[in-house]
Amino acid sequence: MKKIRVGLIGFGTVGTGVVKNILSNGELIAQRTGIRLELARVADIDLKRERDVKLDASLLTTDACKIVHDQSVDIVVELIGGLSPAREYILTALRNGKHVVTANKAVLSKHGLEIFETAREHNVEVLYEASVGGCIPIIKSLRESLTPNNILSIDGIVNGTSNYILTRMQQDELSFSAALEEAKRKGYAEADPSFDVNGTDSAQKLAILASLAANSWIDVDEIYVEGITHITQKDIAYAAELGYSVKLLAIAKFGADWVQARVHPALVPGDHPLADVWGVFNAIYVVGDYAGEMMFYGAGAGQKPTASAVVADIVDIGRNIKSAARKRVSSLPEVAMAKRLVPMEEIETRYYLRFTVIDRPGVLAKISAILGENNISISAVTQRERHAESAVPIMALTHSAKEASIRAALSKIDSLDVVKDKSVMIRIEGGE
Amino acid sequence: MKKIRVGLIGFGTVGTGVVKNILSNGELIAQRTGIRLELARVADIDLKRERDVKLDASLLTTDACKIVHDQSVDIVVELIGGLSPAREYILTALRNGKHVVTANKAVLSKHGLEIFETAREHNVEVLYEASVGGCIPIIKSLRESLTPNNILSIDGIVNGTSNYILTRMQQDELSFSAALEEAKRKGYAEADPSFDVNGTDSAQKLAILASLAANSWIDVDEIYVEGITHITQKDIAYAAELGYSVKLLAIAKFGADWVQARVHPALVPGDHPLADVWGVFNAIYVVGDYAGEMMFYGAGAGQKPTASAVVADIVDIGRNIKSAARKRVSSLPEVAMAKRLVPMEEIETRYYLRFTVIDRPGVLAKISAILGENNISISAVTQRERHAESAVPIMALTHSAKEASIRAALSKIDSLDVVKDKSVMIRIEGGE
Q1: Share of chain A above pLDDT 90, in %
Q2: Which is it for strands A292-299 and A281-288: parallel, antiparallel or unpaired?
Q3: Residues of A in contact with B302 (CB under 8 A)
Q4: Does A333 sit behind a cis peptide bond, omega within 30 degrees of 0 on the bond before it?
Q5: 0.80 cut: is pTM over it?
Q6: Best label site of A74, A200, B69, B393, fewest CB within 10 Å?
Q7: Do the chains contact at A329 and B335, CB–CB below 8 Å?
Q8: Cβ–Cβ below 8 Å for B293 and A312
Q9: A35 and A349 in contact (C-beta within 8 Å)?
Q10: For residue B116, how many other CB atoms are within 10 A of its CB?
Q11: CB–CB of A309/A317 below 8 Å?
Q12: ipTM of the complex in this document
């Protein structure tokens, strides 16, 4: 039986889950793999907090440096999140010849290149399955099972908080703020949910997925990001009537020498597999040139699912140690391929548009004319009868059009005196 | 660049896909992995058939023995299917120190133990991702990503032909035979589709999945198997009215010392992720004690998706060869765990029942009484008004009940003189 000594930095929710998993399922893991995981040391700045797992006090420390410099530790697990000191702990551990497992999407999307290069230099590994999609093995699948494929596209629902909010808005007609408050009460949203609802969290995850799929580093700061805070219940209801679900998507598309990477809400056709991903669940829909359409679905967060992914990474490295494999799967492609990140203005997709206009003859003609001048062709249009309001909504779905054209058209339309409110634009993804 | 020499036995649809993938994406694979795949030799009994890929004639042979004994071959890929001579080729290759990749569910579900033991003995590997779910990385996920989990259940739609037929029956009201004929015309069903529609194919795949999840060999011949040939459009329509989809499921459930393994059609609640898997797609829904609910979705068959899985296995072994890893992931658990296969009579689940009765007072009371005597409690019941027919249908959904009780009750009910036809029973899965 091969013993693997694990040092844990961060004894919070996920860290506690990892400890629980090793204690409760360590025997199962040993039977399956011939590897026995041993907790060498656990560091946290707060050792007094009540945790529902008991560890020998001698294992606990407030000093993470003791772990990254511990000669006996094979694998350092970083679960404190954030950029610093996580980055420093990871780099020091790697330089000390230790493998690293992390769930930290922020540090990877920002400092991934430095971290992976340091790992390669010191002949050790960094695994990070839990950084995207909780327990879903999307990182491993992209790094290993999909190796024979040119990845054509990735569409991910990778933020459970946003998906919960959008689910409640669509299925139960809650407003954005009511759904957000409920998500907070249920523990699905943090006290400050900004990174979840403004798309930052999704963009960090997309940077990791897109970089893997493209064999080319995608800088998280260059990803176009739009959150869901401006999505109204009204637009979700109109979209549903038209047969679409509104989802916050992390989208990447890949060509021979270019990459698109963007995060924004999107109308997804009802018959698309992503349209049926509800609540806090995550799902990543991937298209490969050989595999075709695939979807990976599961819990994107939570103590136990995240712990499952972290321990799977520990076991993965343990298997390499046991079988004396070094650099079995490259963290960076053996030959990096430079790809151009397509500016948002150049993308082409379909659009949902909602105009708020005065109910007067010729308004639709004016709007249509501006769309036509910008080479935007309409595939469906609905104008509602006026009830109490002074203005009426016109909803339009477009055929595929250039983002730059849409922006130009909307700017012109919004300056018309018959248009009473800023027009709404939500992109459509996942259709023909 | 590490060269890996691949010998291919079986140059049919999937074999051609593997050759195409290596030719078209070999450079991509090399850039990602530092491994160059080389086709050493390709064997097929028919070398004259038209194939849409050109190979140098010197690579082709009709004699598979040349491949399994070729000193220069690192990995033998077996794609001829069936039990013999596939088993002999695989065993000989392993004994000659070659790794094996196969897509052959029949030989693995029947001779898997022998094959895996031979591989272990000769310190080589057998990978078989393509044997279940086409391109879906379910085998790798069970063997690696889910290692920290006690797998609690697996529910798989693993036969695309059956799922296509059931989809057309549910969505377009086709009869079973019309849907089957259409599937044949479209190439989704073979000339003899018996193994697909009678559940044999699903049972072979389930044996593989359940054995992996249970760490215990499940004999395919002991799996309860019921196909879809007796499913009528009428029952699919009634199920849909009640909010259920009918799917052919490969089901395994796991306890500390027992396993359930069964293949049969089942009513799946409309809000279950499997309910939205349509057409020829496959999906495997797995519940782990840490990961929770997961679903893996993709193309379960087809030249390119299957080739993707086969080449991923080749690359996986190539990575082990390159990094000098031996026995990195055990084909068999390090410590095998004996588990009892639960007889079908002992399972407990919910049931959909349809009785065909004479429209006469007291009939429902008689049926209810028999169900009650057998401890079967009804959760919903619908009796239709009689139209032209001489008999009327009564549909009932039960709470959880023992299979033995249901069988006893149905046998008694079917002997009532007011019951005009054999009662229909379809199990319900995926609910509370």
Answers
A1: 91
A2: antiparallel
A3: 292
A4: no
A5: yes
A6: B69
A7: no
A8: no
A9: no
A10: 20
A11: no
A12: 0.96
Q: Looking at domain B139-299, which CATH architecture does it have?
A: 2-Layer Sandwich (3.30)
CATH of A2-132+303-322, one of 3.40.50.970, 1.10.287.90, 3.40.50.10170, 3.40.50.720: 3.40.50.720
Enumerate the CATH 3.40.50.720 domain ranges in chain B, comma separated. 2-134+303-322
Residues in chain A: 432
- Is B426 strand, coil or helix? strand
Three-state secondary-structure class, residue A56? coil
pLDDT at residue A385, rounded to an integer: 74
Chain B within 8 Å of A27 (Cβ-Cβ)? no
pLDDT in tens, A388-419: 567 899 999 999 999 999 999 999 999 999 99
DSSP letters, A194-220, are HHHHTSHHHHHHHHHHHHHHHTSPPPG
Nearest CA of chain B to the CA of A364: how many Å?
37
Tell me the pLDDT tens digit for each residue of A332-365.
766 667 789 999 999 999 999 999 999 888 999 9
CATH C-level class of B2-134+303-322: alpha beta
Residues of chain A with CATH 3.30.70.260: 345-428
- Catalytic residue status for B205: yes
Parts of chain B with a pLDDT under 70: 333-336, 386-389, 432
Strands (E), A359-431: 378-383, 391-398, 401-402, 424-428
Nearest Cα residue to B124 out of B309, B335, B315, B317: B317
**Of A248, A293, A299, the residue nearest A271 (C-alpha):** A293
Torsion over CA: A91, A335, A287, B77 (sign): negative
- Listing DSSP states for A321-365 in one string gives HHTT--SSS-SS-SS----EEPPGGG-EEEEEEEEEEE--TTHHH
Tokens 């954005």 locate to: A176
Q: What pLDDT does B216 receive?
A: 87
The class (CATH top level) of A138-301 is alpha beta
Q: pLDDT at position A336, please?
A: 67
Please state, in angstroms and rounded to a whole number, the distance separating the CA atoms of residues A154 and A133. 13
What φ, ψ does residue A353 adopt, rounded to 5°?
-125, 140
B63, containing H or E segment? none
A132 touches A283 (CB < 8 A): no
Question: How confident is the model at residue B143, as a pLDDT?
Answer: 96
pLDDT for res B389: 60
What does each C-alpha distance from B142 to A296, A312, B294, B408, B409 come to in angstroms?
Answer: 14, 11, 12, 37, 39
Alpha helix positions (H), B190-282: 194-197, 200-214, 233-241
Judged by CB atoms closer than 8 Å, whether chains meet at B299 and A311 is answered as: no
| Nearest CB partner across the interface for A305, out of B290, B315, B327 | B290
Tell whether domain A345-428 is in CATH 2.40.128.20. no
Give the Cα separation of A344 and A263 in Å (integer). 11
